[in-house]
Amino acid sequence: MRLAGRQRRGRGRSRLRGDRRYRLDADGLRQRHRGAYLSTGSDFSVARIARGDLARFRAMNRLFAEVFDDPESYASRPPDDAYAEALLARADTVLLAAEADGEMIGALAGYILPKFEQARSELYIYDLAVTESWRRRGVATALIEETRRIAREAGVWVIYVQADTQPEDKPAIALYDKLGTREEVLHFDIAP
């Protein structure tokens, strides 16, 4: 199940695809999961990957490569330590890890984007993945809830995420329907 973000993009060509985009109100937290997934007594924990945490950063890329079955994008040319540290130091980069028993079981990558039309920002969830054995256990919801907390602290007015419309993406779409408002959009990949 691919939850969000990086689609299989054709290199060097444009492609039209119908996507679903979801807007998650940064203030509309669901209290049901709040706190339980961050406590030390829970099955798993969620933490932000920060400067100096190269091991988690590299584990996140391995997890995305495995879950998305896309080693070309996530594992073939990993960034060097200097690039990774610079990325981890940025306040506008949101990288989260869900872990259980010292193993990464889920991850989220997002970016805070300053807007030009008003003095405000949006947060784009670019990638969200959970290992198969941990799906349907609240991990993706916990990652999104932590993203909402970070968004509120940063003054973000909306969070958005895209979802593919393939049959295997139905669980992700159901989750986003529960948490946000659906918009039907067209997505174009344009080669630079």
Automatic annotation (TrEMBL):
GO MF term list: acyltransferase activity, transferring groups other than amino-acyl groups
Keyword Transferase: yes
Entry keyword annotation includes Transferase: yes
Domain N-acetyltransferase stretches: 55-192
Pfam families: Acetyltransf_1
PROSITE patterns per UniProt: GNAT (PS51186)
Assigned keywords, A-Z: Transferase
PANTHER family: L-AMINO ACID N-ACETYLTRANSFERASE
Protein's name in the database: AAC(3)-I family aminoglycoside N-acetyltransferase
Organism: Pelagerythrobacter rhizovicinus
